[in-house]
Amino acid sequence: MKNHPQWHPLEDRYFDPDPAERRVAMELYKSVADLPIISPHGHVDPRLLADENASFGTPADLLIIPDHYVFRMLYSQGIPLENLGIPRKDGGPVEKDHRKIWQTFADHFYLFRGTPTGVWLADELHSVFGIEEKLTGKTAPSIYDQIEAKLKLPPFRPRALFKRFNIEVMCTTDAATDPLTHHRAIRKSGWDGNVRPTFRPDAVTNLLTPDWRDNINALSKASGICVDSYPTLIKALEDRRVFFKSMGATATDHAAETAHTAELSSSEAENIFQHALSGKTNADDAKRFIAHMIMEFARMSIEDGLVMQLHVGSIRDHNDLIYKRFGANMGADIPSQSEFTKNLWPLLNKYGNDSRLTLILFNLDESTYSRELAPLAGHYPAVRLGPPWWFYDSINGMKRYLDRVMETAGLHNTAGFNDDTRAYPSIPARHDLWRRVSANWIAGLVVRGIVDMEDAREMAMDMAYRLVKKAYKL
Q1: Domains of the chain listed by start with CATH number
Q2: Nearest to 376 by CA among 336, 415, 337, 405
Q3: pTM over 0.85
């Protein structure tokens, strides 16, 4: 083992090579490095925290099988998802030997060099599990043994890590029809970890969702309202929002391929909904209905105070073969070009001047940052910009975002950082990366005489902690 290559992360990693900027960045980073983590939007399964004895399973269960960031890269190099233990929809054979899955991953870990996934994985292996060797094909068995042994210990159970990670609050993402059983169990257990649900209604408002009719039936059951018309749909959704809010929710989450918004008349909405109930939905009706429902959700947020998140620009499940064999969210979501100024015009002209609404925008088209999103956030009281999302949650993606957004929008029209992850042990690494990159960006302002150190320290605190806490009402 002594001959294996070692990995010792640099204390000043990710900072600019200029010595003056590097010194200021380190000072700013140290002032925020140990602040509590606010995780306002993510996809960690709440069942992990509902049981004090919950386990992550094997190293492969934890770090490979559920993480589309990982298996997406491996698939791009010709490794079948079956070889990585990814369950097939048809129950077909997949690799069950988790050591073999881990070995395949380690043999190809070089693929992640220079990527954000590689940065996160290296950080969590070292800082969470105390691994000092580089992960390679040769070190794979030893590292697997070390992680496997630690995962059996009480300090490495999900609740214990929640405390160790210094998470002040974590928000999950939950379907509108979810009874929030695991959130109830967390509350009932008396554990003091602050875990909150987030209301996500896409499965009942996107009329083209597979099994949409079943989802409507589930909404009827969950709300106690027979959803057989557009008015009853609205009543059921409002009822569920009340329930989610009673369980601690402060936000909703909505995904759409575009930011298109438009109002339908009540009769138009009813006509489209009835066509959907009878199985006669077409793409144009579905697009019009989503555009209308985004408007309706903004209206609801003004009334009930829930923060509204809108994620735009992903063409979901681009690879038909992977979708048919493995299902949704299997690493085949691809960004598309987006437009916001005209698409959001109806919503913002009706609700954008109302400061009771907080609309946090996320996008996957970086060209919109300075052209559209920063000016919109820099004007409308209701609009805030979410952090770089998904493919741009990276060192360079964050730098580009900060350079293109801040001068026009202003720091306080952004919403801080969220990790948007289901990879639980990567949460500290993701937040640490943001804190380092933002400290380095602020340091650049200091050395160029744009802000002084007093203001810089305040900005670093805002970006690491205060902005997200305020934006999400946490």
Answers
A1: 56-156 (1.10.2020.10), 198-365 (3.20.20.140)
A2: 405
A3: yes
